[in-house]
Amino acid sequence: MPYLFLAFIVYPLAEIASMVVMADWIGAGWVFLALLASALIGIGMLRHHRIAVAWSLVNDLKSGRLTPQSLFWVARYYIAAILFIVPGFIGDIAAVVMLLPWGRRGDAKVPPMSSDTLEGEYRRVDPRNDAQRRLDER
């Protein structure tokens, strides 16, 4: 527990120090514009891609490919959006790293169907009702 408290103290101080260094390096106006742009990117991610991410989960669920990796991708996406909104360059770098496609596989492993399963359509015919009727007649 003391480490979590320490993180809440160290992280804001590190963000403030990174903003001071960047303002000294490129200028305060450019730092302000960069922070404003990153906040707008984060807000845009939360507003406009919320439905796309939800549909991605629904499609994974329908196709039977819902895995912990796909859930982790959604969590990373939303955490990255929040890190873009929070002012600071360390959070922005962490957000970009979280958006990189590591750990996301194209297709999850779907268990193959057993070889003794035969798929097709059938129609039940009761032979007691009509003994003279052939099965291929309709």
UniProtKB/TrEMBL annotation:
Keywords: Membrane, Transmembrane, Transmembrane helix
PANTHER family, sorted: UPF0716 PROTEIN FXSA
Species whose genome carries this gene: Jeongeupia naejangsanensis
Region of interest: Disordered: 108-138
Top-level taxon in the UniProt lineage: Bacteria
Membrane-spanning residues: 26-46, 77-102
UniProt keyword annotation of Transmembrane present: yes
Keyword Cell cycle: no
Bias (Basic and acidic residues): 120-138
Entry protein name: FxsA family protein
